[in-house]
Amino acid sequence: MSFLIAIVGRPNVGKSRLFNRLSKAGDAIVHDSEGVTRDRQYADGEWYDKRYTVIDTGGFVPEAQAGMLAQMRIQAQVAMDEADVIIFMVDSRAGVVPADREITAMLRQSTKPVFCAVNKIDSPHQPEQYMGEFYRLGMELFPISAEHGHGISGLMDTISALI
Ligand code: GDP
Ligand code: MG
Questions:
Q1: Which is nearest to 90 in space by CA: 125, 133, 46, 26?
Q2: Residues near 161 by beta carbon (within 8 Å), at least 6 away in sequence
Q3: Which value does ipTM take for this structure?
Q4: Whose CA is nearest to atom 10 of ligand 1?
Q5: Residue 137 is part of a domain; what is its CATH number?
Q6: How many domains does the chain have?
Q7: What is the mean pLDDT of residues 32-58?
């Protein structure tokens, strides 16, 4: 069984973008036979000599079928049940929102390691200055830009050390 990394977070924080980066194919979108585009949920990837499977939990529940908090509870439950490591993603530009606190409370009950990726820190210079209020979540923080790739190596070096 491959080492499972789950990405959890509310809509639009950048989960699928990170999933793309961490998956070997680099393409989270699959086109099925009807020509419908949907999010892929699992992909294999490797970081140097370490192999893993990454899960984009955001793809599990169609947004129309559940409110955001319900979706996030399901994501967190899937991650806590299935994953070996959880990446909890937040948006540096939005700051800490109530849904982030709710998911933090759930993840705190997990026995799995949880790393908080503070995304959309696109400037590689002094990334820490954008992370202030996220320290209150009480998790280990990693400033990243899923879009531009900054900070991914720090996050993945830490995670791959557990594989
Ligand atoms: P998801 O809903 O959590 O899967 O988020 P997506 O990966 O679909 O990204 C949501 C939006 O945020 C998209 O418009 C992305 O282009 C944008 N985004 C994702 N990562 C970054 C980032 O590192 N920097 C910036 N500026 N935008 C990002
Ligand atoms: Mg997504």
A1: 133
A2: none
A3: 0.99
A4: 12
A5: 3.40.50.300
A6: 1
A7: 76
